[in-house]
């Protein structure tokens, strides 16, 4: 293996962004991971702890309901959501990520699909009772990050819930040169649009590194 995947990601992202393509590097990175030239990126096998804590507390019953997982990567969050009973779709812009997720979860009830958050299938809009977004929007530069926030919100059905996990950036902190771009308070609040209102927006300091914090936010559509 040549180098760690984060360094490779930085290089691919810089080239992709210079070429005006904010998402092309994800496929290149997952392909390099599958080929073994770097470790497989974002190789999480457990649901995100903040998502898992939320589902433990709320114990949502997804029976007869639909869920979608945005930028699903290797599928750990999607599999968790499916165990709650939701009819679950999980999508990623990288075809290799989707292949890896399918291979990793044989027999899964989750439908893993290649799709672009910035060009959503019209029949996905406003029909999901639970929308889960973990670390996708923060992987995009501005533009199109603001638009991506609005697109995530459009997936939520009337009465539905959106949960977002993202790294947090202070309002006075400079915008990073490359990914990730931790979200400002203004950006996390921007998921609430129209009749999609914030239920809770929590800034949670990292246990090991208090200088680092994450947002865990929940929104509900009236
Ligand atoms: C930082 S990774 C996080 C992956 C996963 N959510 C996790 O937490 O392990 C961001 C993911 O979003 C995907 N992604 C980026 N832009 C996207 C877009 N426009 N539409 C769909 N997926 C996208 C990437 O391919 C990648 O899998």
Structure report:
It is a single chain. The protein is built from 7 helices and 7 strands, in the order αααβαβαββαβαββ. It has helices at residues 5-18, 24-35, 49-58, 76-83, 95-104, 145-154, 185-189, and strands at residues 66-70, 87-92, 111-114, 128-134, 156-167, 196-205, 213-221. Helix 6 (145-154) links the parallel strand 4 and strand 5 (156-167). The N and C termini lie far apart (50 Å). The model has no long low-confidence stretch (mean pLDDT 97). Residues 23, 26, 42, 44, 71-73, 91-94, 97, 116-118, 134-136, 139-140 line the site of S-adenosylmethionine. Residues 23, 26, 42, 44, 71-73, 91-94, 97, 116-118, 134-136, 139-140 line the site of S-adenosylmethionine (SAM). GO terms for molecular function: methyltransferase activity. Residues 70-160 form the Methyltransferase domain. It comes from Pseudonocardia cypriaca.
